[in-house]
User: Which sequence fits this backbone?
């Protein structure tokens, strides 16, 4: 009987030990699974941020001087225009369809969908009214396509560089009017020196100034 009791005790101990070992294995597997899910979630969120939220790019050329200069690093707000449309004087980032270069183009919105744009006497006119610029710009020397009236479709924007006489923009056929679909997002932050890119457009409400005779 004593021998049977010892055997039973030994079996009970082995059984208990087996359960504990199995429980440890399950805990380890659970911890590894949670860890893997957390890593995948971080990767997924990072993908969403890059694909739909924020993207970093480098300014190419001096067409937006003095606000942005060649090689400036900026962040693009790619989420904003999913909920709203670009406004006049927004600095936008876009990539025209059919362009061979891989870099983004950065310009300021001047004309909005449905408007009529023309450049004459060195100034921009919207629907026959002289545009009151929000930043200091030079008188335009080359009117390009806008020497005649340009009528924008319902999804098109007319854009210009702030450095008006050193900019390829909507005045020229290789850029033309920019469609909503081509817009990547709004230029948001210049990283160095740090600055909110569109700050100069705030606090002013007048868009156009009537032409004086």
Assistant:
């Amino acid at each position: 009987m004593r021998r049977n009791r010892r055997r039973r005790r030994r079996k009970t101990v082995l059984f208990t030990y087996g359960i504990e070992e199995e429980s440890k294995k399950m805990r380890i597997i659970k911890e590894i699974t949670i860890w893997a899910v957390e890593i995948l979630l971080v990767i997924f969120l990072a993908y969403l941020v890059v694909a739909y939220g924020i993207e970093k790019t480098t300014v190419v050329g001096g067409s937006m001087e003095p606000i942005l200069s060649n090689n400036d690093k900026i962040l693009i707000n790619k989420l904003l225009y999913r909920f709203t449309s670009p406004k006049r004087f927004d600095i936008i980032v876009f990539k025209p369809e059919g362009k061979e270069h891989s870099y983004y183009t950065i310009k300021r919105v001047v004309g909005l969908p449905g408007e009529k744009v023309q450049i004459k006497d060195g100034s921009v006119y919207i629907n026959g009214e002289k545009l009151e610029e929000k930043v200091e710009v030079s008188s335009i020397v080359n009117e390009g396509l806008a020497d005649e009236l340009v009528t924008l479709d319902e999804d098109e924007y007319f854009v210009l560089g702030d450095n008006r006489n050193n900019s390829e923009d909507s005045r020229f056929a290789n850029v033309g009017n920019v469609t909503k679909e081509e817009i990547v997002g709004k230029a948001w932050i210049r990283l160095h020196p740090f600055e909110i890119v569109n700050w100069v457009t705030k606090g002013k409400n007048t868009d156009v100034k009537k032409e004086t005779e």
Notes: The two ends are 122 Å apart (CA to CA). Confidence is low (pLDDT under 50) at residues 201-213. The CA atoms of residues 59 and 71 lie 5 Å apart. Residues 2-53 form the longest helix (52 residues).
